[in-house]
Amino acid sequence: MPVDLPTLTVARLSRLLENNVTSTLTLPQYRVLGLLSTGDERATQLASRLAVTKPTLTALVDSLCERGYVTRETPAADRRAVRLSITAEGRTALGEAAVQFRVLLDDVVGRCRHPHAVLAALEELRGALDARWAERTAIAAAQSIEEKAAR
What we know:
Layout: H1 5-18, H2 27-36, E1 41-42, H3 43-50, H4 54-66, E2 70-73, E3 83-86, H5 88-109, H6 115-150
Antiparallel strand pairs: 1-3, 2-3
């Protein structure tokens, strides 16, 4: 089977952003802070949303905590859970990195015949990714309830 060009294009764009040497954040760190900027998250849920293993998330969060960009909290009601929050310093770093990553994206998209259409398609793709995650979360929750009921 020949290479799938849309998938290859997304992979190449991701690599371009990963190799951004002007940002103080790596692309994985940017993704973590970006998701945390919308609200606190349990570590397990964040790992699921990012499609990374818990050890990978732990390493990312450790580096962000060391820099003062993220805080960890263990809720009293569930000592096994870890809630993550972005700090003011993290929001500042996220904003600066967003500008730097966007410069790269705009450079590529600006070479397209219809850059506004490409950006609109990317926004639609973001919505589709969010919808997919919500569906998967709902299915996992339903399966968990079924498993508990079967016990």
